[in-house]
Records
---
Amino acid sequence: MGPLHGVKVLEIEAIGPVPWAGMMLSDMGADVIRIDRPLSIDMGVERETRFKFSERGRRSVIADLKTEQGQKAILGLVSKSDILLEGMRPGVMERLGLGPSSCLAKNPALIYGRMTGWGQTGPLAQTVGHDINYIAMSGVLNSIGTSSAPVPPLNLVGDFGAGGMLLGFGVMAALLEARQSGMGQVVDAAMVDGSLSLMAATLGRYAAGEWKDERQSNLLDGGAHFYSTYATLDGLFIAVGAIEPRFYQALLKGLELTNSELPAQQDRKNWPAMREKFASIFLTRTRDQWCKIFDGTEACVSPILSLDELQAHPHHMERASFVDVQGQMQPAPSPRFSRTQSKIAGPPVARGEGGSAALRDWGFELDDPQLQGLSWN
C-alpha cells in the first residue's frame, strides 16, 4: 500500500525515461498498465524480459495504435486513468487521434505526461536525438570529463535524472493540483529542460565568477585534489570528497601529511601539484587498506565499488538496498516512506502479460466492445 495506491497510470510503450518513470510510480503503489505494440520484425532482438528492471511492476495489454479499434480501446482506458505517459515525437499522438485534446475530452481530469528530448515546441522539437545530444545542449556534457575531452556520464543525466525523474515529478504535481481543481492538464517534460534545471547550482557559480568553463579546473569536477578519484596499489579506485576544512584535516591525517608543510587547501594554483602528491600516496596501499585507515573518520573517503561488489557491501545489505524479484536482484524502491511503504509490484512482464487481470481490476468487462482493439496473453 504505497503512497500512490489507487492511482491508475496508462503507459504508452517507449524506451528510456518513460518506463523508468513508470517504474517509480509503480514502486510507490500506482497501478500501471503498459500499452505495448504488436511485435514486428523491425524491432530487432529484444532483451530478455526478466532483465528489463525498469519495466517491473506493471501489467501489459497489446494494441495497434495505428488502427481505429486500437485507438478506440486506448480512449476507453483513458476514461478510467489518472495519468497517461507517452514518449512519442511531437505530433505523433495527435496523428493517431490520441493527443491531449482527444484524451482530455474523454477524461477532463487526466494528467497527460509527455516525454521528449527537446520539448513539444522549438526549432529542434522534431529533431531526433539521444541522452548525449540533450546534455550536450545544456552545458552538462561540456562540464564532465577530463581536461582533454568531455565524457558521457552513462545516460543517467538526460534519460533518468532530467527525463524520467522530471516526468514523474511533473505528473505528480499536476495530479495534486487536479485533485483540487478537478481539471487535468498536459505536462511537457523535456530532457534538455531538465538538464538545464540540474545545472542551476553550477550556472549560479559560473555567474558569480566561481566556476571556470574548463573541465577539471573546478571544485566539483575533479580539479580539486580533495574532491577527486585516485588509483590504489591493487588497481582499484578510491573517491575523496573532503571539501570542508575539518574534513580536509582528517584526510591529511590519514595520508600522514602535515598541514603546515602544504599550500592552503583553496590555493588553486597548487591543485595540480597536490593531485600528483595525493596520487603517489594512494598508490602505496590497496583500496581496502585505505578504507580501513579512513573508517570512522570525517575524511569523506569511499571505495569506488564495481557493479559486482554492490550487493555485498555491508551498508547496502543492512538497508536491504537490493530486492530479490523472482531470482533477479534489483534496486529497492526509493525514496523510503515511514508509513506507506513502497514495494515492487512484480517482475517485468512480456507483451500482453497480466492484461486481463489488469482490465478487470480497472472495472472493465473483457467482452466490452470498446476494448476489441486490445489483446493479451
Note: Residues 225 and 274 are 6 Å apart (CA to CA).
---
Amino acid sequence: MKAISKKEYKKTLARIEDLLKLVGKDTSVNNPKLKELAVLSDLVENYEKKRYPIGTPSLRDVIELRMFEMKLKQKDLAQMLGTSSSRISEYLSGKSDINIENARALHKKLNIDGDII
C-alpha cells in the first residue's frame, strides 16, 4: 500500500468523513463508496501507525493503573502478592526487578499481560 503525505492524509480524513455520511450498516459490501471507505481507512491506519506509533506501556505504568482501577494502596498490593510493601515500592521506583513469583501473581491477580511483565 502506498504511503501518503501529511497533506494527503488530511484530504483523506475529510473524504472519510464524507463517506461515513453516505454509508451505513445496511450498505451492500459491493457498494463502491463502501469499498472506497475501506481503502481510505487502510491508508489512514498505515499513516498513523508510521507517524504516531504506540509503544508498549511500562510495567510500572500498568501496575499503577491497575492499582488505581482496583483502588489498591501499595500495602494492599503487597498483601495480594504475598510480598512486602517495600518490595512493591522498589518495583515501582525501578530500584528492583520483579521476581518470577511476583510476575506470575501480577499476571494472575491483576490481569497484566505477560509481554509487559
Note: The chain has two domains: 6-51, 59-110.
---
Amino acid sequence: MCPICERPNYFPSDHHMVPRSRGGVATETICEDCHKAIHAHFTNKELEEKYHTPEALLEHEGFAKQIKFLSKQDPGGRSKTKKNKDRLRRE
C-alpha cells in the first residue's frame, strides 16, 4: 500500500523525503502517481523545509485535494500530473 494515497502500490517508486540535492538520504516507497504529484506541487526547497513526511504533505490543501482524486483512480493505471501553477511561480 502507498502510505500517501493508500492504494495498492503496483508501480513503487522510492521518494527521498528530503531531496538528495539538499542532503537527504532517507527514502519512502510510494506509488508513481503520488511521486509525480509531490514534484508537481512542491519545490525541493519546500520539501526540505516543511513537507518531508507523508503527514506534512497531506496537510497542504492543494496536494491533499490531488491525492483525494488519485485515491479514487485505478491503481493499475497511471494518471497524468501537470506542474501546479503556484509551484511554477515559486521557482
Note: The chain has one domain: 12-80.
---
Amino acid sequence: MAWTHLVILLALFEYIGFGILVGRARERYGVKAPAITGNEIFERYFRVQQNTLELLILFVPAMLITAQYWNGAWVALVGLVYVIGRALYLQGYVSNPRSRGLGFLLSMVPILLLLIASVVGSVRALM
C-alpha cells in the first residue's frame, strides 16, 4: 500500500506544480486575478490545472480502492502511468492543444483500468 500512497502523493505534488505554473503564467502574461481569460497561453496552463483537478477526483479514490484488492506495486505502476500522462498532457496542451491526445490517453486509460479493477475486486470480495 505504501507504493500506492507514494504515487498518489506524487500526483498531488504534480498538481501543486501545475498550480505554480498557472501562477507564473498569470504574472508572465499579465492576467490579473480573478480573471481566467485574457491570454491564450495562460488559459492553456489554467485548463491543464483544471482538467487535472477534474481527474484527481476519480484517480485518488480509484487508486485507494484498487489497492485494497490487488497488488499495491501493480496498482502504483498503473498510477505512475497516470502521472506521466498528466505531464505529457501539460507539455502537449501548452505547446499546441491539438497535441494533447497522448497525454490525455495516458491519463484516462489508467483511471478506467483502476475503476474496472476496483469493481472486479469488490465483487470478488462479496463472493
Note: Residues 40-69 form the longest helix (30 residues).
